[in-house]
Request: fold
Amino acid sequence: MPTPQIKDEKTYRALRREGNSEEKSARIANSAANTSRRSVARRGGHSPAYEDWTKKDLLQRAREIGIRGRSSMSKAQLVTALRGH
Reply:
Protein backbone atom coordinates (compact mmCIF):
# COMPACT_ATOMS: atom_id res chain seq x y z
CA MET A 1 0.00 0.00 0.00
CA PRO A 2 1.48 3.39 -0.96
CA THR A 3 2.50 5.76 1.78
CA PRO A 4 0.52 9.05 1.68
CA GLN A 5 3.71 11.15 1.77
CA ILE A 6 5.23 9.33 -1.22
CA LYS A 7 3.83 10.35 -4.60
CA ASP A 8 5.82 7.84 -6.67
CA GLU A 9 6.19 4.61 -4.70
CA LYS A 10 8.05 2.76 -7.47
CA THR A 11 10.76 5.43 -7.70
CA TYR A 12 10.96 5.60 -3.91
CA ARG A 13 11.56 1.85 -3.60
CA ALA A 14 14.20 1.92 -6.36
CA LEU A 15 16.05 4.74 -4.61
CA ARG A 16 15.96 2.89 -1.28
CA ARG A 17 17.41 -0.22 -2.97
CA GLU A 18 20.25 1.98 -4.26
CA GLY A 19 21.06 2.82 -0.64
CA ASN A 20 19.60 6.32 -0.36
CA SER A 21 18.09 7.45 2.94
CA GLU A 22 14.32 7.44 3.41
CA GLU A 23 14.16 11.24 3.42
CA LYS A 24 16.30 11.67 0.31
CA SER A 25 14.36 8.95 -1.53
CA ALA A 26 11.03 10.57 -0.63
CA ARG A 27 12.26 13.99 -1.74
CA ILE A 28 13.42 12.71 -5.13
CA ALA A 29 10.35 10.52 -5.66
CA ASN A 30 8.02 13.39 -4.87
CA SER A 31 9.93 15.78 -7.13
CA ALA A 32 9.97 13.24 -9.92
CA ALA A 33 6.25 12.46 -9.60
CA ASN A 34 5.23 15.27 -11.96
CA THR A 35 8.22 14.97 -14.31
CA SER A 36 10.95 12.43 -14.77
CA ARG A 37 13.86 11.48 -12.54
CA ARG A 38 16.28 12.66 -15.22
CA SER A 39 14.84 16.19 -15.27
CA VAL A 40 14.99 16.32 -11.47
CA ALA A 41 18.65 15.33 -11.58
CA ARG A 42 19.42 18.08 -14.09
CA ARG A 43 18.20 20.71 -11.63
CA GLY A 44 20.80 19.75 -9.03
CA GLY A 45 24.56 20.00 -9.03
CA HIS A 46 25.06 23.73 -8.51
CA SER A 47 26.97 23.41 -5.25
CA PRO A 48 30.69 22.62 -5.06
CA ALA A 49 31.72 19.11 -4.01
CA TYR A 50 31.61 18.50 -0.26
CA GLU A 51 35.37 17.76 -0.33
CA ASP A 52 35.92 21.43 -1.26
CA TRP A 53 33.91 22.72 1.72
CA THR A 54 35.60 23.64 5.00
CA LYS A 55 34.86 21.54 8.05
CA LYS A 56 33.08 24.55 9.57
CA ASP A 57 30.76 24.76 6.53
CA LEU A 58 30.12 21.01 6.65
CA LEU A 59 29.22 21.25 10.35
CA GLN A 60 26.83 24.11 9.62
CA ARG A 61 25.10 22.13 6.86
CA ALA A 62 24.91 19.03 9.09
CA ARG A 63 23.34 21.19 11.81
CA GLU A 64 20.74 22.54 9.35
CA ILE A 65 19.80 19.02 8.29
CA GLY A 66 19.85 17.63 11.83
CA ILE A 67 22.58 15.01 11.59
CA ARG A 68 23.27 13.58 15.04
CA GLY A 69 26.81 13.18 16.35
CA ARG A 70 28.17 15.76 13.93
CA SER A 71 30.38 17.54 16.47
CA SER A 72 32.57 14.47 16.96
CA MET A 73 32.81 13.58 13.24
CA SER A 74 35.86 14.08 11.08
CA LYS A 75 35.57 15.96 7.81
CA ALA A 76 35.40 12.67 5.86
CA GLN A 77 32.65 11.36 8.16
CA LEU A 78 30.67 14.60 7.73
CA VAL A 79 30.92 14.28 3.94
CA THR A 80 29.67 10.68 4.11
CA ALA A 81 26.81 11.62 6.46
CA LEU A 82 25.72 14.53 4.28
CA ARG A 83 25.78 12.42 1.14
CA GLY A 84 23.75 9.71 2.82
CA HIS A 85 21.11 12.10 4.00
